[in-house]
Amino acid sequence: MTVLATGVFDILHPGHLYYLNEARKLGDRLVVVLARDDTARRLKRAPIVPEHLRLEMVRCLKPVDEAVLGDRDDFYRVVSEMDPDIIALGHDQRHDPERIRSELAKRGLRARVVRLPCLKHDLLATRRIIERILEAFGRTAPDEKALEDMEE
Question: pTM higher than 0.85 for the full model?
Answer without folding.
Answer: no
